[in-house]
Amino acid sequence: MTFLPGLAETPLPTTVVWDPAMTAYNFGHGHPMAPERMELTARLAGSLGLLDLAGVSVAAPDVATDEDLCAVHTPEYVAAVRRVSDDPGIPDLVRGLGTEDDPAFAGMHEASARLAGGSLLAAAAILDGSAVRAVNFGGGMHHAAADHASGFCIYNDSALAIQRLLDGGVARVAYIDIDAHHGDGTQNIFWDDPRVLTISLHESGMTLFPGTGFANEIGGPNALGSAVNVALPAGTGDAGWLRAFHAVVPQLVGAFLPEVIVSQHGCDSHRLDPLTHLNISVDGQREAATVIGNLAARYCDNRWLSTGGGGYNVISVVPRSWCHLIAIAAGRPVPLRTPVPEEWRAYVHEKYSVTHGAEAPRLMGDDVDLWWRSWEVGFDPNDGVDRTVMATRKEIFPLYGLDPWFD
Q1: How do residues 82-105 score in pLDDT, each as one tens digit?
Q2: pLDDT value of position 11
Q3: 3-state SS, one letter per residue, for the chain
Q4: Which residues form the Histone deacetylase domain (predicted)?
Q5: Which of 55, 78, 314, 328 is the 20 to 30 A CA-CA neighbour of 104?
Q6: Res 9: pLDDT
Q7: Of the residues 143, 148, 265, 324, which is catalytic?
Q8: What is the separation of C-alpha 174 from the centre of its chain, rounded to a whole number of angstroms?
């Protein structure tokens, strides 16, 4: 175990959701949503000493009850998941169960409901004050809809956590989704609820599943401006991604004034991810998580619930990105030049080098230049990222009394 030296930040009461039973969420050999990514994240967090930091507690989730799940899912859908879970040989394709993306497997209901239970546990810890920060890196199943599965997601744990916070007396929740894929399920569940601001920064639906998430998707008639989408061109790198993030997210969070932030940190935006077309680094993902944590400190008395999400480079990317998330949430960020602990690298080499054909990274960062151009220096109509950002700002900013050109 390696305790990180020289960290002077103030530790924050933080609940980290983890239990090896969470790896039962397993669609089978060859499926991109490999359960090893959770196990490797937890092991790296342990090797870095993150789970033993002052203020950090590790909690095992319960399996969410049907009553819990029906806070955002229809009873008919929960019953369908149970049926397919008991008999995977009889899929329910109408509800997305037994498809190529979401293959049926024995125990699907319990495994999915356990991940959901993790985000409900995180919400409960924030509501009862036992934690101000909570991380469920096994969660973030943001494509799951109220009545069907989609995109590797069975139950929408992020939506369940948001609903639990609202039911617990929280007046406004900001949901920030930085997965490479549009957070369509969470957006649609709260489409007409003015208490929830959903912001999704993702690769354009013109080039990536689920084909949604454009600037003109702004919420239902009772909640115009509650859905915010930044659909970035394929190939966008750190500079453009961070420019877009900083040109939209802080301004709207400041205008909305949430009491809690819930965020989804799918790390499939990374340049090495096999399913997407963005060019982001672990360093850039860490920067975005840092800003979200700072927004929670500024507007929400530090109350911040974060989840994992997508991420399909299970060795080089996912464990590092989510360990940075845990460390930032706990108030003890890991420097990018920190060596990856040798015990973890040796474990990866022994167990995964043959099956995954990759060696473990040596540093916790990608050693890149994170310079990005502030929106204040001007809008370039010839730049695809700037056009995307301006489309979003023009749709949303006036609804909050903000000037899309200058604020």
Answers
A1: 999 999 999 999 999 999 999 999
A2: 80
A3: CCCCCCCCCCCCCEEEECCHHHHHCCCCCCCCCCCHHHHHHHHHHHHCCHHHCCCEEEECCCCCCHHHHCCCCCHHHHHHHHHHHHCCCCCEHHHCECCCCCCCCCCHHHHHHHHHHHHHHHHHHHHHCCCCEEEECCCCCCCCCCCCCECCECCCHHHHHHHHHHHCCCCCEEEEECCCCCCHHHHHHCCCCCCEEEEEEEECCCCCCCCCCCCCCCCCCCCCCCEEEEEECCCCEHHHHHHHHHHHHHHHHHHHCCCEEEEECCCCCECCCCCCCCEECHHHHHHHHHHHHHHHHHHCCCCEEEECCCCCCCCCCHHHHHHHHHHHHCCCCCCCCCECCHHHHHHHHHHHHHHHCCCCCCECCCCCCCCCCCHHHCCCCCCHHHHHHHHHHHHHHHHHCCCCCCC
A4: 31-327
A5: 314
A6: 58
A7: 143
A8: 13
Q: What is the pLDDT of residue 112?
A: 98
Measured CA to CA, the distance from residue 88 to residue 99 in angstroms comes to: 11
Q: What whole-number distance in Å separates Cα of residue 107 and Cα of residue 88?
A: 9
| Active site annotation includes 349 | no
pLDDT digits (tens, 9 = 90+) for 332-387: 999 999 999 999 999 999 998 766 667 899 999 999 999 999 999 999 999 999 99
Q: Is 273 exposed, middle or buried (0-12, 13-18, 19+ CB in 10 A)?
A: buried
The predicted model scores a pTM of 0.97
Determine whether 129 is exposed, middle or buried from the number of CB atoms within 10 Å of its CB (0-12, 13-18, 19+).
exposed
